[in-house]
Amino acid sequence: MGVFQTSYNVINRKLSLEERRRHMETAYRIDILARTGIILLLPLGLHGLPLGHSATGRDVADRMWLLVAAWMALCWGAFIYRESDRGLLLTKLDERIRFVVIPLLFIVAISSLLGHGPLAAEPGQRWFSAKMGVYAFTLIIGLKLRFIMREWTTMFRVLAQGPNTEVEARLDKSIKFARKIAYVYWVSIATVAFFGSVKPF
Predict the structure, then answer these.
(1) What is the DSSP letter of 21?
(2) Residues 7, 179 contacting (CB under 8 angstroms)
(3) pTM metric for this prediction
(4) Residue 101: its pLDDT value, please?
(5) What is the C-alpha separation between 115 and 126, in angstroms, rounded?
(6) Are 97 and 123 contacting, i.e. CB atoms less than 8 angstroms apart?
(7) Which residues are 54's β-sheet partners?
(8) Staple 195 to which of 131, 133, 140, 182, CB 3.0 to 4.6 Å?
(9) 17 touches 45 (CB < 8 A)
């Protein structure tokens, strides 16, 4: 929500470019907390898996923390160096991890719901596989939002060289689209929480 509200000032042409950059910086500082949270949902969700619920067991959940720690370091590195070429490179590496994680989560979730494992899918247990599938969907939306925010950095570099109507129009369109998919993002995250709390099936 903080990034959502801050974006209005990022595209406000009545403000100076420096002021708009300041609001973009605020958006990035808020967004890193959301990025941290969405990554942590993966190991927290697996660590909370009841014993015997999955063929993979607790060992995989414990190993997942090590992998996520490395992923988190990459994510924060991209944030720290966000205004540089190094930051853009780290961001792209972070995105590539998601290109592996997202299909893997979908495969596990769908396979388990169809009764092929590795997660148990007896009555009363299918909620976990469904939750994993919705979580994978949130990662897709988050990935798109990352693409958009990466574009902001690139476009502001161009705007720093002088007024550019074309880039301003692209920035405005980009942020308006991001606001729309943010609503889907919030609903999806709420659905993950609902499945985990209520365990409806």
Answers:
(1) H
(2) yes
(3) 0.84
(4) 93
(5) 10
(6) no
(7) 119
(8) 131
(9) no
